[in-house]
Amino acid sequence: VNWRNENLMRLFFRALRKYVKPGGSVKVASNAGAVGVRFSYIVGSGVENEFVHVETMPFQQWQLHRYGRSYGDRRDTYKRPGEGEQYNAQRADSDMVYCFVYKPSGAQLPRQQIRMPPTYKTMLGCTDGALGERQGESKKKLATELFKRFMQECSGVHVG
């Protein structure tokens, strides 16, 4: 589901264009070894939306390094990482902060491209995870449910 993380960054930076003044700064923190929101998604998405990447710094060197870190997903509603706690093999000392300045060119940008999820056929051929554990009608049913959900997410329709 890595396509979701890439799309998240692309749509995040595209949305920021409406709220950030020219010359405004944006900082995005992520773990240096992240497999979800990778540095290349952050930097590439910023650049394609006219946010110039000006600096990358270790999180601990950032002026706001003492703020309460979060998971960045639904877990934040019921728990937060504790002081010095490791979560998902991530620690503050391996987080990086990616710094950008918004420099719009004034040109109309093309419609934001997104990365599409795997095809239904690809999902049916999956041999690992929840799909790999199923066969026959059970696998078809799960693949259909996932494919519908993924396509809804790509269309901007989010359920639950």
Q: Could you please describe the fold and organization of this structure?
A:
This protein is of the alpha+beta class and about 160 residues long. Helices cover about 35% and strands about 15% of the residues. The protein has five helices and three strands; from the N terminus they run αβαββααα. Strands 1-3-2 form a three-stranded antiparallel beta sheet, with helices on one face. The longest helix is centred in the last third of the chain and has 20 residues, at about 135-155. It is globular. About 15% of the residues are buried.
Mean pLDDT: 84
Residues in helices, as a percent range? 25-40%
Tell me how many strands there are. Answer: 3
| SS field, number of helical segments | 5
Gyration radius, in Å: 19 Å
- The run of helices and strands is HEHEEHHH
Strand order in the sheet with the most strands: 1-3-2
**Shape estimate:** globular
In short:
This protein has 160 residues and is of the alpha+beta class. Helix content is 34%, strand content 14%.
Strand and helix map with partners:
Blueprint: H1 2-16, E1 25-31, H2 39-48, E2 51-58, E3 95-102, H3 120-124, H4 129-132, H5 136-155
Antiparallel strand pairs: 1-3, 2-3
Helix pairs in contact: 1-2
What keyword list fits this structure?
three-stranded antiparallel sheet; 5 helices; alpha+beta; 34% helix; 160 residues
